[in-house]
């Protein structure tokens, strides 16, 4: 078995959630301590001509972490651009960025890279879906179509990023159409603080009926052993007081050993999202 650590993180263009101060230096240090093998990043500035310290963030992080980098530019402004990035400790064999923008106000893309992991091609897709439900549904359709065309069934697959799907309505599409598993639904129970936090939230929801909104209900997922388990993804936004479930890591072909969301210091000061970490094994 080959163990890897996967991290998904919306880095908020290298600025903190409060005050907009630069956080890229602290972000490099924090990510270095996590020792990721695959790093799925959203809101990465590939170009910042106004502030050199925030320029080429994927290259800066990759150099500090001794990883290869692939960048998909989505939103272009006069002096800046930003998009998704994949950083890999394994060789990146190829990558392509597919434009899935649904309207002019939101530029979105799917960054699809293939990495070679101990001789096995692993497909990695970094996503940042739109803010409107209709647009997200169409972007997921494009994602499903791409995977069906370009990812052979036997090859391992990872999809991670900011799905903006706080209602968790897109989860069944990934489970039923692609055979994917969200990592928190497959991770062994009771191994991390996240599960204790969920139990606390569940008790609060029972006592406070106003929180029992249909949009926050959990969606059944399939665990890696094939049994269904109703486990919602963790709350990741805003990082200072996480409430919305925006970020996901989906996988196919791996065993999930551990999954956690990083709350508290220093993470709540580095971005408006909390990062996700999953320890996986490739048979």
Shape: globular
CATH class: Alpha Beta
Number of discrete helical segments: 7
Report mean pLDDT, rounded to a whole number.
86
What's the CATH superfamily, by name? Answer: Endonuclease/exonuclease/phosphatase
Report the CATH architecture. 4-Layer Sandwich
Termini separation comes to 5 Å
Task: Count all strands and give the number.
Answer: 14
Q: What percentage of the residues does DSSP assign to strands (E)?
A: 25-35%
Defining traits:
283 residues; alpha+beta; Deoxyribonuclease I, Chain A; six-stranded mixed beta sheet; 7 helices
Polypeptide structure, described:
The chain has 283 residues and is of the alpha+beta class. The protein starts with a strand and ends with a strand. Helix 1 (24-34) runs parallel beside helix 2 (57-65) and helix 3 (133-150) packs parallel to helix 4 (171-178). The protein has a single domain (2-282), classed as Endonuclease/exonuclease/phosphatase (Deoxyribonuclease I, Chain A, 4-Layer Sandwich), CATH 3.60.10.10. It is built from 7 helices and 14 strands.
Would you spell out the secondary-structure blueprint of this structure?
Elements: E1 2-10, H1 24-34, E2 38-48, H2 57-65, E3 68-76, E4 80-88, E5 92-99, E6 109-117, E7 120-128, H3 133-150, E8 157-162, H4 171-178, E9 181-182, H5 183-186, H6 193-207, E10 220-222, E11 228-230, E12 247-252, E13 255-261, H7 267-270, E14 276-282
Parallel strand pairs: 1-2, 7-8
Antiparallel strand pairs: 1-14, 2-4, 3-4, 5-6, 6-7, 8-12, 9-12, 10-11, 13-14
């Amino acid at each position: 078995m080959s163990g890897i650590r996967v991290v998904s993180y919306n880095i908020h263009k290298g600025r903190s959630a409060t005050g907009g101060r630069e956080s890229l230096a602290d972000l490099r240090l924090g990510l270095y301590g996590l020792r990721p093998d695959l790093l799925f990043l959203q809101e990465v500035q590939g170009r910042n001509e106004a502030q050199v310290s925030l320029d080429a963030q994927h290259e800066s992080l990759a150099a500090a972490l001794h990883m290869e980098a692939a960048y998909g530019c989505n939103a272009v402004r006069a002096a800046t651009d930003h998009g998704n990035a994949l950083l890999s400790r394994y060789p990146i064999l190829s990558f392509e960025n597919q434009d899935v923008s649904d309207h002019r106000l939101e530029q979105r893309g799917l960054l699809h890279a293939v990495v070679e992991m101990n001789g096995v091609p692993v497909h990695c897709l970094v996503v940042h879906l739109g803010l409107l439900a209709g647009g997200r549904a169409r972007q997921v359709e494009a994602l499903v179509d791409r995977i069906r065309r370009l990812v052979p069934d036997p090859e391992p697959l990872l999809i991670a990023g900011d799905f903006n799907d706080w209602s968790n309505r897109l989860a069944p599409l990934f489970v039923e159409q692609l055979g994917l598993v969200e990592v928190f639904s497959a991770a062994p129970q009771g191994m991390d603080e996240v599960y204790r936090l969920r139990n606390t939230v569940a008790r609060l929801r029972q006592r406070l009926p106003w929180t029992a909104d249909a949009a926050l209900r959990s969606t059944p997922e399939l665990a890696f052993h094939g049994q269904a388990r109703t486990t919602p993804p963790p709350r990741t936004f805003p990082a200072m007081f996480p409430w919305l479930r925006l970020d996901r890591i989906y996988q196919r072909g791996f065993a999930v050993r551990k999954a956690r969301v990083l709350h508290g210091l220093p993470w709540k000061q580095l971005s408006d999202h909390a990062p996700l970490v999953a320890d996986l094994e490739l048979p």
